[in-house]
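At this stage, I needed to go through a protein sequence along with its fold in C-alpha cell form, as given directly below:
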Amino acid sequence: MGCRGRDSRSALLRVVAMRNEQGQLLLVPDLRRCSPGRGAWLHPTTDCFDQALRRRAFGRALRVSAALDPDPVRDHLEAASRENRPNEGTESGFDADEHPMSTQR
C-alpha cells in the first residue's frame, strides 16, 4: 500500500481496522491473516507504513471514513525492527574475522 510495490503474501503484513472498547477505530496488524473484515496489505517496514499514512491510503483501502489510530501497527513494526537488528558490540563466527568458524586455516 505505501510503496505500491507488489510482493508475495508471505512477505506482506495484513492490517485490519478494529474497534476498541471505547468505540475508536484502530489499525491492527493481523499476524495470522484470518481476522474478519477487509484487510490492507503492506511491506512490514516503517518506510512503507509511513508512506501509506502520508497518502492516507488506509482509509481508502479499508473503506473506512473515520479517523484510524495507527499506533498498534507502528508499535508492531518498531518491535520487529528491533528484533531483527544485530547486537552491537559482540561478534562471533563469520562476522568476527570475516571467516566461517573452522578449526583449520
